[in-house]
Amino acid sequence: MNLYNYIIVIILMILGLYIVINDKNLIKKMIGIGIFQTSVLLFYISLGYIRNSLPPILVEGSALYSNPIPHVLMLTAIVVGIATFSVGLSIAARIEAQYGTIEQD
């Protein structure tokens, strides 16, 4: 059984969490959150994969179909993540305009 994608998920989660906790720069924190979100998306898409399955289009003679719900939910999560990321960047730009720095301190 191939577990490469789960190893990549764990590495991305650790990297994203490390960046969020360790860095004081707000832009770098946003990038860390984006990396962490990517790992969660990859994890859920990996869970929804079924080997040798067909798309959910009814065809005669086949009984193994993949469930499209996890993939559709992850598309929604991508859109919400992009919107959240853009709001976070605009807040960081306002903080930089107000205080002259984007460092957390």
Describe the structure.
With 105 residues, the chain is mainly alpha-helical. The chain has a single domain, classed as Helix Hairpins. Helices cover 69% and strands 0% of the residues. Helix 1 runs antiparallel to helix 2 (26-47) and helix 2 runs antiparallel to helix 3 (69-99). The longest helix has 31 residues, at 69-99.
In short:
The chain is mainly α and 105 residues long. Helix content is 69%, strand content 0%. The chain has one domain (4-99): Helix Hairpins (Orthogonal Bundle).
Write a concise keyword list for the protein shown above:
Helix Hairpins, 105 residues, single chain, 3 helices, mainly alpha
Q: Helical region count? A: 3
Overall shape: elongated
Structural class: mainly alpha
CATH class: Mainly Alpha
What is the average of the pLDDT values? Answer: 89
Number of strands: 0
How many domain units?
1
Radius of gyration, in Å, reads 19 Å
pLDDT < 50 stretches: none
How many angstroms does the end-to-end distance come to? 47 Å
What is the CATH-assigned architecture? Orthogonal Bundle
Sheet having the most strands: none
Using the coordinates shown, work out and report the CATH topology.
Helix Hairpins
Provide the β-strand percentage band: under 5%
Q: What are the secondary-structure elements, in order, as H or E?
A: HHH
Residue share in helices?
A: 55-70%
Protein name: Cation:proton antiporter
Family: Belongs to the CPA3 antiporters (TC 2.A.63) subunit C family.
InterPro entries: CPA3_antiporter_subunitC, NUOK/Mnh_C1-like
Membrane topology: Multi-pass membrane protein
